[in-house]
Amino acid sequence: MKRNTWQRAAVRDALDRRDDFVSAQDLHAALRDSGSSIGLATVYRALADLSAEGEADTLQSPDGESRYRACATTRHHHHLICRSCGRAVEIEADEIEDWAASTAAAHGFIRPQHVVDVFGTCHTCAAADLEPASPEPATVAASRR
Fold first, then answer.
1. Would you call 57 helix, strand, or coil by DSSP?
2. Cα angle value 132/137/142 (rounded, 5°)
3. What distances in angstroms separate CA 88 from CA 39, 71, 129, one per listed residue?
4. pLDDT in tens, 32-75
5. DSSP for 106-135?
6. What is the three-class DSSP state of 28?
7. Half-sphere exposure in the Cβ direction for 62 (13 Å, CA)
8. Cα separations (Å) of 39 from 3, 78, 132?
C-alpha cells in the first residue's frame, strides 16, 4: 500500500464528493478550481494507485478515456451507469458470478476475472425525458398577443 500523501488524500476526497465516473483531467480541473496546486501527473498516479488498491473503480468511456469513481466497497461488484448524467450505482450480481465461473470451467479455465458494467438511463433522467418540454419564451409571448 502506498503512503497517504496530501495529494492522494485530495484525489480521494475529490472522488468521494462525486457519484459519477470522472476523467483524470476533469478531476484535476476541479481540484485546481478549488485552489489545489496538485499536478495532472500526480492525479493520474493517485488514481492508478487508488484503482489498483480497490479504492476506486475504473471504466473506459466510449471514446477510450479512463474514468474513475470512488468505491463504496472493496468487494468485487458491478455498476449500473446512467448514459445521460453519469450517475453510477454499485450492485452485486451473483448470477453473473455463477455464469462467469461455469463458463470458464466449461472451457477449462480457472480463476476467472471479469468486468461487467450495465449502462442505461436512471429514473431521474428518464422522468425528465418524459416531461413535456416547456414552450420557448417567444412562443409563449406570441400566444398571448
1. strand
2. 105
3. 27, 11, 19
4. 999 999 999 999 999 999 988 888 888 887 788 899 988 877 67
5. HTT--S-----EEEE--HHHHHHHHSPPPP
6. helix
7. 4
8. 18, 30, 44
